[in-house]
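Tutorial handout. Part one gives the primary structure; part two gives the three-dimensional structure as tokens.
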Amino acid sequence: MTVSGIDRLHSQLSKLEDMFPGYLTEIVEGSIVMNPVRPFHGKSIQRLWAMVEAQLPHGWALVSDVAFLFDEANEFCPDLAVIPAEAEAENRSAYPADLIELVAEVVSPESVHRDYELKPRRYAARGIANYLVVDPLRGHVVTMWNPGPDGYRGRDTVPYGTDLVLDSPLGKLTVGTGRLPVDPKAADRA
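Part two.
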């Protein structure tokens, strides 16, 4: 796909979002992907946002569901990304992926493969220091760090109910996983 091809796809995303309210759209491996947004997904993002925002050092800000261009076939809209505050103040709908310092995705039934397999490779290849997979389906957070060209070299799984202390270039960040909701249908999917 050429750069003009990705530009055409990007211009179509806003039209799709208007036509299908309640769906998040992004470009993954050259395809437009749409996921329904569910209350537990949003609640997870809100609670994580509140915990992280309170601990961010001056000069950093959170954004959610805005586009980050990774390459000609991948434009992700992370559930939560930490970027420089001056970039966030520009209030854009799309940013360069190189601005992201920390990224988090909340797993939905439709996003399991993307959040656990596809996105970590892209995030790590861009040098994003920390990646969190918040999984209300399984009731745990997977933290990934030490990015390399083929993925993250460090990975831990922390069950909900345990405080996750994240060592990051932003400093130590604590995520109280006991405050994160577990999808009530999770037992049905196990």
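Part three, for discussion. The longest strand covers residues 140-148. The first helix runs from residue 3 to 19.
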